[in-house]
Structures are given as C-alpha cells and as structure tokens.
Design a protein that fits this description.
alpha+beta; two-stranded antiparallel ribbon
Length: 270
C-alpha cells in the first residue's frame, strides 16, 4: 500500500492496517477487532499471533452497537457520511518480482473481502478481485437483522439463533455463525487429518499439517458440508446464526487507469 486516505486525510497505512493470518496467507485488515478481543488467546498455540493488531479497546458490539458516550473516534472507526469523500481510499502497488503465477495461477492483482469487524476473514470462499491498472470503488450497504429480546427465554433450537454469551467457543470470545463454523472446521479437520491448516486457530496440542497433508485438509470443508447435505446435521456443529445478524451488500464499479499517460502529464519518462 503506497498511500492511504481515511475521511479525506492521509494516514500511515501501517497504523490502520494489521497483518492477519488467513486461509490465503498473510493479508491486511482495516477496522478489525484486535486479537485480544476476538480470540481466546489463552487457548491458542503460542508460536505465532494470528493478528499483529493485539491491543485496542473495543467500543462496539454487534447486539448493542457503540457504547453510550462513544465519540466519533470510537473503535471500530466509522465514516462521518456517505460517499468516497468519507470513506477509505488505498493505492496498491505490486512488484513484478513478487508475482508467483505457479501458486496464484494466471491472475494478477489483489483480493478484497468485506466482512464484519468481529468475524475472522476467509478469502478462500469469497472475495472481490482488483485487477492491476484498474481503479475499483466499493459501495457498501450494511444490513442488520435483530431478534426481539423477549425471545431470549425461548430455546435456541426454536428461534434458530444465539444471543451473545449463549454459546461458548473454544478459540473465539465473540460468537457469530462465521466464527463458529471456522472453529467447527478446525475440529473436523483435526479429527479427519490429525492436523490442521497453518491458518486455522489451534491449541498447542494440535499439530500443523505439512505439505504431504494438503489434500486432506483441503477436502475437509467439502466433507463437512457433505454431511449437512445428507441431513446428518442441519447446521455444522449446531452453528446457528447470531440473533443480531450483520451482513453487507457490495456494489462494485471498475475503471481502467492509464498510468503511462498520467506519469507523462507530470513529465516522467515512461
């Protein structure tokens, strides 16, 4: 990232993005919840951290929203209005010697995932691709579905959702369906392969898979959902949605960038 603007002001990219271990390797997260608020770090292996963003007070919760008295600079940060002027703008650069087409296939550019702050990113399942020499705009529209608090006294099997603090996860402090399925896949992969993928949250007694076991852990996701299709379980590991469900609609617009013409306008030889 050569330049970052947030709410029209130039900011240090290293200060607003954190390195995050994902299923696609090391990625960079903006506005995600810090590791000590997202993970139960006491239950995780201690060889490496899943996020470089380890300490940050959290002032937002999915069910209750921002804490009372939170100002405009509360974290996670929020824009002051709609449109590009109030959003995040990033200039991305890729060096030719960094391209690895053997691993990535015949595609260049970047992958972008829009997800709630309290969910771990998983790019293998879904992401938007930003091609080189393109400018890409994402218009994000949040959708939130809330469940009446009066249903808290109903069994979760009847309402088909979990309120906060109703479902314990071993590796995550925050319950939502995505984090629950992530943990479910960890346990399923470990029982199937005797190891887990490097990016998966794991305890110290869980072995990390080596290269000879790629086929095993790569097929674990499909096998886990194959059981669901067969009707053996309606939700993997009983991972109902959160009773406050947050999702985003993303509208995309792309436009090619004529880098050579732009540089010639500033008298650079290209």
């Amino acid at each position: 990232m050569s330049e970052c603007l947030w709410k029209t002001e130039t900011v240090d990219c290293n200060e607003i993005f954190s390195e995050t271990i994902t299923d696609s390797g090391v990625c960079y997260t903006f506005n995600g919840i810090a590791a000590n608020n997202l993970y139960r770090t006491e239950n995780l292996q201690g060889e490496f951290a899943y996020s470089s963003f380890s300490e940050m007070p959290i002032e937002w919760f999915r069910e209750s929203g921002y804490l009372s008295g939170s100002d405009l600079y509360a974290y996670p940060e929020r824009p002051l209005g709609k449109g590009m002027k109030f959003g995040l703008e990033i200039s991305l650069v890729s060096y030719l010697f960094g391209d690895n087409f053997f691993c990535n296939g015949p595609r260049d550019g970047f992958r972008v995932l829009v997800h709630p702050p309290d969910e771990v990113p998983t790019l293998d399942h879904f992401s938007h691709r930003v091609a080189m020499r393109d400018t890409m705009s994402l218009t994000i529209k949040p959708h939130i579905t809330e469940t009446s608090p009066s249903l808290r006294y109903q069994a979760h099997e009847d309402r088909q959702c979990f309120f906060e603090n109703e479902r314990y996860l071993r590796f995550f402090k925050i319950y939502n369906q995505h984090n629950c399925i992530t943990e479910c896949l960890v346990n399923f992969t470990y029982s199937l392969c005797g190891c887990v993928k490097f990016s998966m949250p794991r305890s110290a007694d869980m072995r990390e898979c080596d290269a000879s076991e790629i086929d095993c852990y790569s097929g674990a996701y499909m096998k886990m959902y194959a059981q669901q299709v067969k009707g053996e379980n309606s939700h993997p590991c009983g991972c109902f949605t959160a009773c406050t469900f947050l999702s985003y609609d993303v509208e995309i617009s792309n436009q090619p960038v004529n880098v050579r013409a732009y540089l010639r306008a500033f008298n650079y030889s290209v």
